[in-house]
Prior knowledge:
The protein is an alpha/beta fold and about 280 residues long. The protein has one domain: Divalent-metal-dependent TIM barrel enzymes (TIM Barrel), CATH 3.20.20. The chain has helices at about 1-25, 40-50, 70-85, 105-120, 140-160, 170-180, 195-200, 205-210, 235-245, 260-275, and strands at about 25-30, 55, 90-95, 125-130, 165, 185-190, 215-220, 250. Strands 1-2-3-4-5-6-7-8 form an 8-stranded parallel beta barrel, surrounded by 7 helices.
Amino acid sequence: MSLTRRSFFTATGAALAVHAKSYGFQFGVTDWNLRLTGNIEAVELAKRCGFPGVQVSLGRKSADNRLPLDDAGIQAQYLDASKKHGIKLCGTCLDILHVNYLKNDKLGQKWVMDSIPITRKLNAKVVLLPFFGKGALQTHEEMDYVGDFLRDAGREAEKQGILLGLEDTISAEDNVRIMERSRSKAVLTYYDVGNSNRGGFDLVKEIRWLGKKRICQMHLKDNPGYLGEGKIDFPGVLKAMRDIGFEGWAILETDSPSRNVEADMKRNLAYLHKTLQS
Length: 278
């Protein structure tokens, strides 16, 4: 019986890998939703859950004026784990911007600049820049301030082959306002369907309007429940992603209703593959 189950899951995994190529994009998972924030063990768990990639937190607490992952030894460990388990480090998250807000804290600007070479060394390509809580963007003046700073950061990111993704609670149009203000091809939208849904925006309309060239990566979630069982029209979202030719990473930032992270991640991932194949 165990052999039969093992054969089934092996075949299923192979089939999903084939289908993933036809989607144009791949599914990753955040290390924090694996409950392993900034922990190298997240790479192995992502593999067990069936994901080809994991998004890595750069940490919220600095030490000696450096980010936790601003350490060659730790970076080497991540790269070794990535190679060992065949999992890509598909992006980083500059978590410390939840503490030092980019809209009004010069230290936040330093962290953005520091995150660029770290992300390059991890071969992760995309830095998520979060704007939430007291750091949320509320006015056009704040958006313009961020856009102006990102001119310099964007130039540096372009030099190093890194993209800077804006994840926030504002509209697609306001995100493009910041992108255009930055005058940098490296500054793009990090589209989160959960955040946009809570903001009352039309997800399918925004995804289609932004198009693949203005979205670097996406977060998929409908917390606190399972995908497909909440308010978000995931069949419509996934169709829009395919229709625009999205080729980035679609990363699950999903809660674990049962508190069994591995089981819940597998369930959400299976739902997405099933929906795409229907």
